[in-house]
Amino acid sequence: MSQLKYGLVLSGGGAKGAFEMGVWKALRECDYSLGAVIGTSVGALNAAVIAQDDFDIAMEFWSNLTVNQVLDLNQEITNTYVNEWSKGNFDAFRNSFLNILFSDGLDITPLRNSLNHLISEDAIRKSPIRLGLVTVDLTSLTPKQLMIEDIPEGQLIDYLLASSALPVFQKQEIDGRTYLDGGFFDNVPINFMIEQNFKKIISVEFPAIGMRKWVREKNVEIITVNNSQLLGGTLDFDSARIQQNIQLGYLDALKVFDAVEGKYFYLSTQKNNAIYKKFQVQLGLPLSNPRQHKKMLSLLNLPKDSDQTQVLASLENLLKKTSYKNHPLPLSLLEIAGKNLGVPQLENYPIDYFFQALLKRLNQLLKENLTLLENPGIIKTFLTPNSNKFILFNFITFYIVFLSIRGDLSHENESAFLSKFTPEVSLSMITILYIHETLNQ
To answer: What is the H or E stretch that residue 144 is in?
Structure first.
């Protein structure tokens, strides 16, 4: 990776900010060099810890974060914010905020105390990564976009809290002026980063309340990292959710940075890929077990003398009937099988290890379902034309029945049997057959 300096932009979104910590982990692993980091709201808080460049302390902070380290809850105010204010426009926010400002609001003293332990203003001012943040001066209704050199010494934490000042929080004042969350001006401050003369920008964005400015400059390379799954609510500080969001940010960023591949899973194919290469070569060739090969060709509706080219073409055609169309065939087959088997998703899998994960999960399911065939009605259901009971079966049921069905079925029974298989189930079945074939070579 070139040491060209990138500008990192972090959006606001409360507890969803854990996702940004995962992105930072991926940036470090992929050797992206940062020249500046600018954030809004929780993005500003994360920008500060990134500029400080103390990864271990930052991860420890987020990993152990609870709502009690952020605020003292006032449930009535929280409900008002979620149910009413979040549905209004800026004027509604401002009026509601002003009405409640001087009486109630969530006390964020715990967050200030946490930042006092976490943030070293001196280290940030000396850092080669320049810090920037966005807030809104509610007193004059003007936005404030500030780089670290624009913030008076000793007031960094004040301005970080000003950038994060949601209307439900107690008012944030600096020198007699009241400030509001920077998301009400620009929740994704790419334009501000461009003003700092960065032409290569990494922008971390997820759904959140706030404004989004159009990017004015066209001659800029913007790498956008979005979340592939829901991140929870703005005030959802559940520890399991935070850990999941950190991992999701890490994996989604790795995919954007081309360090992993996959549509559903996160698969690294560049190293430790000897099994994967053998699988690619083996795919479409005759299976060593004639009975299983015959069943496989039946699933693909192919004659018994079909060659590798015909098998691969049939697999591609079947793949087009799934959400994985236009994706590489070998990788898609592994992903479809993994999803059907319920292999854990949020892991960075070296591709050969993914084969192990698939077989481990398959063996686990087989042990849990050893008594399936003791129910005589299961096979009968599969061999009954127009039976819809199969929709209650999970993949392992299909797999066990598929292996147990004899090879001398009548044409009518075979047609009834094969009609129960969706494209995903058929592809998963064939994938497992070829995995075993690959490992037994």
So the answer is: strand 142-147
Q: CA nearest 43: which of 131, 139, 143? A: 131
Report the DSSP beta bridge partners of residue 200. 221
Provide mean pLDDT across the span 7-15: 94
Pinpoint the alpha helices (H) of 64-189.
75-83, 90-101, 109-118, 121-126, 156-163
Least confident of 83-87, 250-254, 345-349: 83-87
Please report the pLDDT score of residue 369 as a whole number: 80
CA 394 to chain centre: 26
Residue 89, pLDDT > 70, answer no
What is the pLDDT, as a whole number, of residue 238? 87
Instruction: Write out the catalytic residue numbers.
Output: 41, 181
Instruction: Determine which helix (DSSP H) or strand (DSSP E) holds 3, and give its type and residue range.
Output: none
Give the span between the Cα atoms of 396 and 404, in whole angstroms.
12
- Three-state secondary structure readout of 366-402: HHHCCCHHHCHHHHHHHCCCCCCHHHHCCHHHHHHHH
Q: Does residue 128 carry a pLDDT above 90?
A: yes
Rounded to whole angstroms, what are the CA distances from 72 to 83, 110, 387?
A: 19, 7, 57
Q: Which residues of 211-227 are buried (b: 16+ CB within 10 A; e: fewer)?
A: eeeeeeeeebebeebeb
pTM: 0.86
DSSP string, 201-242: EEEEE---SS--PPP--SS-EEEEEE-SS----TT---HHHH
Determine the Cα–Cα distance for residues 368 and 234; give it in Å rounded to an integer. Answer: 39
**pLDDT for the residue numbered 102:** 43
Residues 275-309 pLDDT 10s: 999 999 999 999 999 988 988 998 898 998 999 99
Residue 105 one-letter amino acid: G
pLDDT tens digits, 27-47: 999 999 999 999 999 999 999
Q: Which residues contact 121 (CB under 8 A, 6 or more apart)?
A: 153, 154, 156, 157
Which two tokens mark 343? 């292999």
